[in-house]
Amino acid sequence: MLLMFFGFIGAVLDGFTDRLPLYFTSHMINSIGNASKLDPDVLRQRLNKNAVGILYGAGVSLVACFLEGYCWTRTGERQAARMRIKMLSVKRFCGT
C-alpha cells in the first residue's frame, strides 16, 4: 500500500513538472522582450533566476520520475508474484 501511495505521489509530481519548463521559459522570453526597458544587470538577474528555476524543476522531475517508476514497478512485481502463487496452487489442487 505504501508503494502505491509513493507511486501516486511520484505520478502527480511528474504531471506537474511537465509544465514547469514552459512557465519559466515564458518568463525568460517576457524578460527578453522587455529588455529595452530594463537595466542589463536586472535582465541578467531575472534570466538567472528563471534558469535556476528550470534546474530545480529538473531536479524535482528526476526524483518524481524515479519514485513513480520504481514504486509502480515494485508494486507490479509483487502483484504478479501473488497471482503466480495462486495460479500454481489452483493447478496443484486440480491435479493438472
Automatic annotation (TrEMBL):
Keywords: Glycoprotein, Membrane, Repeat, Transmembrane, Transmembrane helix, Transport. Residues 4-88 form the ABC transmembrane type-1 domain. The chain crosses the membrane at residues 53-73. InterPro entries: ABC1_TM_dom, ABC1_TM_sf. Pfam families: ABC_membrane (PF00664). GO terms for molecular function: ABC-type transporter activity; ATP binding. The keyword Transmembrane helix applies. SUPFAM superfamilies: ABC transporter transmembrane region (SSF90123). GO terms for cellular component: membrane. Belongs to the ABC transporter superfamily. ABCB family. Multidrug resistance exporter (TC 3.A.1.201) subfamily. This is ABC transmembrane type-1 domain-containing protein.
